[in-house]
Amino acid sequence: MTSGAQPLISNNPHQAWLPMLELATQEVFELMLASHLTKPVTPAPEAAMNITGMVGLAGQLCGVLSIACDEKSAALMASKMLGIELDKVGPEIADALGEVCNMVAGNFKNKIPGLGDGCMLSPPSVITGNDYSIHSMAQTPALEVGFLFENMPIIVSVQVHS
Amino acid sequence: MSIRALIVDDSSVMRKIVDRSLRQAGIEISQTFEAGNGAEALTVLQDNRVDLILCDINMPVMDGLEFIKQLPTVENAKGVPVVMITTEGSEAHVVQALACGARGYIRKPFTADQVKEHVIPILAGKP
Known about the structure:
Number of helices of chain B: 5
Structural class of chain A: alpha+beta
Helix content of chain A: 25-40%
Strand content of chain A: 25-35%
Number of strands of chain A: 8
Structural class of chain B: alpha/beta
Number of domains of chain A: 1
Strand content of chain B: 15-25%
Number of strands of chain B: 5
CATH topology of chain A: Chemotaxis protein chec
CATH architecture of chain A: 3-Layer(aba) Sandwich
Mean pLDDT of chain A: 87
Order of helices and strands of chain B: EHEHEHEHEH
Radius of gyration of chain B: 13 Å
CATH class of chain B: Alpha Beta
Largest sheet of chain B: 5 strands, parallel
Shape of chain B: globular
Distance between the termini of chain A: 25 Å
Number of domains of chain B: 1
Low-confidence stretches of chain A: 5-10
Oligomer: heterodimer
Mean pLDDT of chain B: 93
Order of helices and strands of chain A: EHEEHHHEEEEE
Strand order of the largest sheet of chain B: 2-1-3-4-5
Largest interface: A-B, 23 and 23 residues
Helix content of chain B: 40-55%
CATH topology of chain B: Rossmann fold
């Protein structure tokens, strides 16, 4: 997976939201997956990400929140959420990643004063494959934060359109 | 006491998590019914009686708020408490859900302890 979104730079008008995005993500993984996310020493290569969950934001904040990872990470998320062995996980992978994305998006917007009521979430979508690109029409750089989930990289990003 | 629960969420993974959280909260469940949206849930209730309904808000076909508005039209659902479990966490959403007839409101992400804290008093008949 490659992304057309530019990474966060210092003049991003929404930079102050980055700690809330980090906290929103960490809370979801700790409460729903009993997993403590850590920060990677080096950025994860985007090419390794072959599954992406996305939730649209509409209203006072328009944009897309996405979580990209590899399929093993997504399967482990499903395994932890369902409380089943990793090798027993089947078609629930996309559902699990979509629901994680949905909860991170909801938790994130609820942490931004005034957005809880004024921003709606779309149902999640999940894209899988080894060779796809996501192109955003947004004018501002993406808020992006990388984590290690059980030592596997995941990237959480918010592309703000308006 | 053993109860029959209806869990309404468009995510099958989330339905299983809610079911597990109820059991972890010490609630004995004799039967769990599942539905992927409000319309499916109404159909389930046409033929089955339950003691508790846990319901998401954002769902396709029929959302959770519309579902609880229509509940009084189903004989089997009269008086059955509904607890919303949703990512929509604003005060306005809580007020709206309670005004529509929900008895409780749990924000995702949640813990089994939060489920216990909200659901046990409702099952015990406390307001």
